[in-house]
Amino acid sequence: MKKLFSVNNILWVIYIGLLAVLLPHTAWAFAQFEPEGSKIGLYTAWAAAFAFEAAIAALTHKLSKHIEATARIRKPFAKFTKRYLSSYAFALYAALGVSSMANLAHAVEFGSTMAIFDAWGVGFGTYAIAFGAILPLVSLMFASVLSNVSDSEDEQDQALVDAKATVAALRKDLRLANEALDLSEKKFSDLGGRFTNLISDQKRDRVLAARSLWPDLNGAALAIISDSTAGYVSEVLKSVKQ
Question: What average pLDDT does the chain have?
Answer without folding.
Answer: 77
